[in-house]
Amino acid sequence: MSGRFGLVVKFTLKPGHEDAFDQLVSDTLPGIRDREPGTLIYTCHRVHDAPSERVFYELYRDQEAFDAHGQQPHVQRFLAERDQHLERVEVDFLTLSDGKGLPASSS
Description:
Elements: E1 5-13, H1 18-35, E2 39-47, E3 50-60, H2 63-71, H3 73-82, E4 86-95
Antiparallel strand pairs: 1-3, 1-4, 2-3
Helix pairs in contact: 1-3
């Protein structure tokens, strides 16, 4: 698992911005799926009983894959447009130690 780089991001959305934010995420994900082999897991979750919250879990092959993710045009668009929908963002950076369902190790 050495080298794996992850993060959890909690977004608190402005009231009434849930659908627009979810659409922005949906518009961004095809680029991540199709053009980012180093992005191993990229998921967005709604939070039960908290309709204005979204939690992302992201896992990258390594720090370089995370850095490359941030330079992609579809991610740059997401970053430029997301703030209009947000009240707050909380980010925790993670170092993977072990788990189940992890992508096979690759360079």
